[in-house]
Amino acid sequence: MTGGAPTAAVERRRARVRGAVQGVGFRPHVYALAARDRLAGWVRNDAEGVLLEVEGADLDGFFAALRAEAPPLARIDAVEQEAVRPQGAASFEILKSEGGAVATAIGPDAAVCDACLEELFDPGDRRHGYVFLNCTHCGPRYTITRALPYDRANTSMAAFPMCPDCAGEYHDPLDRRFHAQPTACPACGPHMAMAVSEIVARLRAGEILAIKGLGGFHLACDARDEAAVARLRARKDREEKPFAVMTAGLASARRWADIGPAEAELLTSRERPIVLTRRREGSGLAEGVAPGLRELGLILPYAPLHYALFHEAAGKPPGTAWLDEPQALALVMTSANPGGEPLVTGNDEARERLGSIADAIVDHDRAIVVRADDSVMRVTAGAPAFIRRARGHTPAPIRLARSVPPILAVGGHLKNTICLARGEEAFVSQHVGDLDNGQTFRFFTETIDHLSSVLQIAPEIVACDLHPDFLSTRYADETGLPVVRVQHHHAHVASAAAEYGVEGPLLGLALDGFGLGADGGAWGGELIVADGAEFERAGHLAALAQPGGDVAAREPWRMAAAALAAIGRAGDIEARFSDEPHAGGVRAMLERGLNAPETSSCGRLFDAAAGLLGVRARASFEGQAPMLLEGLVRAPRVLEDGWRIADGVLDLRPLLARLTDETDPREGAELFHGTLIAALAAWAGEAAKARGLGHVALTGGCFLNRVIAEGVSDALAARGLTPLSPRAVPPNDGGLSLGQAWVAAQTMLDGKD
Ligand code: ZN
Ligand code: ZN
Ligand code: FE
Q1: What is the 373 CA–ligand 3 centroid distance (Å)?
Q2: 295-299 and 245-247 as β-strands: parallel, antiparallel, unpaired?
């Protein structure tokens, strides 16, 4: 070569991109960047993710933008580059996927994106008002997918052949809908069975509607209408569980609750969970939405239909600016799961199971393939924590610190989830529910079958709870695979070990309602050292009797009676609980030790406190009394000498004795919380010191109590210890399957050493 200006050297690089990079618009992203920088080369999907080659001068800018400008649903775990010989190529191409067995990952469902929202409200757009619009960056995924690979033919969109306009967008690499499998328009896609205007008119008239959504039906009514909310409760068997409320946007949500920055971020995240917030007193929301509770579960619209409802109610203003204004309408949007059975998903099923609850069924003609409840989250100690992990998060993997063999963990009995793990990834299923009826058990087996098929994981081992009678345990026994039985509280602490990548011994507080102990006893207030496949019970709460057995879990007054007996005041039981016909019988059980099994449960300790303080004698759902007790707390206070620690046993009888004489429930609730926090921190602190451990996992359903979670966390930090709070899974039994999988993995890996 002679003369001319010096040109930058042309180079060519091959790059392997790992992570969630398929089905999220990653190839068009690469294509657009290459076009922008005038680079040659190609990109394609394969079994390991995305493989690409680019050729040109100055490739560093391209690779910086590859990460910085990645599509919203993509997650890049690694970009591995290597230099290859330049080929003098001139064009850039998207190549067909390599090989037949491409492990195309399925992402979680995502809330409608801003670009689609603009189209929804643009009278000039061909998708104006079309409530099934979506694109590569938003819309249904997991809930419509039957099988791998993730393409339209394997989703419930297979029933809707694309029209020429949609097909044109689908095949155009520079279009937002390039390879958007669920893309549709009014000409070719699904339709609602009822007009949006009629749905809104009926809701305004006080009707209860069963509305088909992404992962199941919701029961909806006007959340400001006390009579409608009361009717919904009456028809749902007078259930007292709080209902979630949907508002048009953040500005509207602030009418009903105080929302901090971290909560605002969660509410508007594309995963769109229900977020527990501090309810505003006297805001005009029906009291029946969350009876007696200070927290309010809020959720923002995520499906286009939800937006269309609020748009109609707002008088159909053009554009999307109205979403930033406070809107009047607020809707109860509660899972349609009558009698604690799984969420209703089918149209005929809705008519059968919801006909007596809803005034009308609002369905559509796209099938829900996978049932998924709304996720529920809360901000605890400044960071998001799960209460229920489901839509928007499943099947996104949780990264593990160690590569594990293919494992199935079947979870516990209540708030069941299952977990499939393989390599450095653990996939925790959506919330399945309590396995105490045939329908939920069927959902459990379907979830295992579906998740293992779409993830193509064939487990070599199955992990389950120690309890022989759990349906999940029986399922594990019938798989024919080697079974690892994991003690309940060991699994709770191991779930934190899995999330935080702790491979050595990990100390944890596991506080919950019930789990079968290694000694056959009822455990639930445990100090556990989890160490791989092994664990040590470093301590436990002093046991209380459970008069009547399981029934005591629903009748806090019985636990209060047990507390009276424990402090030598059984003689007070009948006078104190004179309204209870069984008070005499309970006293006799306690005095004679008949039908009053002992438990170290922290949940039952909460029940005892709630019962002693007269907060609630009988609960309509598990955890109700402790929730009401927590709701009374403004500032926790410590009763000095309110506890004793001996031989690892934490004894709170001095505190219970003090509560027995407390006449003000608020004072009592504050003393109970403050003293319990101080006692737990002292107890765990001692154990940590004795063993030279620096971390304490905070797990079990009792850590759903924000006062306790934040208080114990702060108190441990003040002692120089590092608290580990679950963030990837719920602290309650919804996180058990992850812990079981982790223990099973250690068992297998240790066995091979
Ligand atoms: Zn979109
Ligand atoms: Zn179309
Ligand atoms: Fe538990």
Answers
A1: 21
A2: parallel
Are 499 and 508 spatial neighbours (Cβ–Cβ below 8 Å)? no
pLDDT at 253: 97
Q: How far is the CA of 366 from the centre of ligand 1 (A)?
A: 18
d(CA 132, CA 152): 15
Q: For 181, phi and psi rounded to 5 degrees?
A: -60, -40
* Residue 101: predicted pLDDT: 46
What pLDDT is attached to residue 237? 80
Say what the pLDDT of residue 2 is.
Answer: 45
Q: How confident is the model at residue 128, as a pLDDT?
A: 97
- For 672-710, the DSSP string reads HHHHHHHHHHHHHHHHHHHHT--EEEEESGGGGSHHHHH
pTM recorded for the entire structure: 0.94
Contacts of 503 (CB under 8 A, 6+ apart): 401, 402, 497, 532
| DSSP code, position 112 | P
Query: What pLDDT score does 753 carry?
Result: 45
Measured from the alpha carbon of residue 465, the closest ligand is 3
Ligand lying nearest the CA atom of residue 133: 1
DSSP state of 157: G
Give the model's pLDDT for residue 3: 45
- The Cα–Cα gap between 103 and 105 comes to 6
Whole-number pLDDT of residue 111: 98
Give the chain's residues under pLDDT 50: 1-4, 100-102, 753
- CA end-to-end distance (rounded Å), the chain: 61
Separation of CA 322 and ligand 2 centre (Å): 28
Q: What is the pairing mode between strands 40-46 and 92-94?
A: parallel
* Dist CA 246 CA 302 (whole Å): 10
Task: Give the ligand whose atoms come closest to the C-alpha of residue 140.
Answer: 1
Q: What is the pLDDT of residue 338?
A: 82
Distances (CA, A) of 254 to 242, 289, 374: 19, 16, 21
Please answer whether residues 283 and 256 qualify as being in contact, where contact means their C-beta atoms are separated by less than 8 angstroms. yes
